[in-house]
Known about the structure:
This protein is about 65% helix and about 0% strand. The chain is built from 14 helices and no strands.
Amino acid sequence: MLGLMRVCGEEKALKEAKGMHEHVLRTLSPLxxxxxxxxxxxxxxxxxxxxxxEVFDKMPSRNLTSWDTMITWLAKNGLGEDALxxxxxxxxxxxxxxxxxxxxxxxxxSILGDINEGMLHFESMSKDYGIIxxxxxxxxxxxxxxxxxxxxxxLEFIEEMPFxxxxxxxxxxxxxxxxxxxxxxxxxxxxxxxxxDPSHLSELSKAGLIPMKASNLAKIxxxxxxxxxxxxxxxRVHEYRAVDRSHPESDKSMRC
Length: 256
């Protein structure tokens, strides 16, 4: 039955999903928490977050997976504000965060075009919650910055990583560069991938691989959209949700 729910979600078959939900309620009640979570995931994959929210609100109890599923899929379905609002509710509930939840948070910030809040959440992961960012988090931040066109900031972020960027980081950045028409910088990324693992380059990327001159790379590095540090917030538009009011920086991150 869980397999059928997964198929309904993958095929975005809402009618069948609703039928499966009704069948599960009739035959398996009271439902296990894990079954509720599968129903959340099924509706979320069908792009029907209203149905997912209805289930979420009526759940007798929730665990970390319940919150993770909702926040992640709200972001995936383009509902960035709702994802961040739910993350705020999660924090108020006093539950322990995990690394996976921040992936959805970065995606939500990208949807809203708010890189300041996204970078504050990234800083807050380790500073406030003791979560060491994984390579997946670094890739997500690069996607957040580069996805909305802040390629210079994405490059700065990559260069300041505490360890050598992986193939996934460079490949993600390369694709974003080409999406935004920065082919020369994209070729620089391709060179890095070529050195680390040539198998990750498609034949098309290899054919377009042009050696990048150091002078051109230096010009790109100097081209900054703003001179302030990514983790310093100025001119906030809405309340920063990465930390509570008790946080020493919270006074700087409230509405003007």
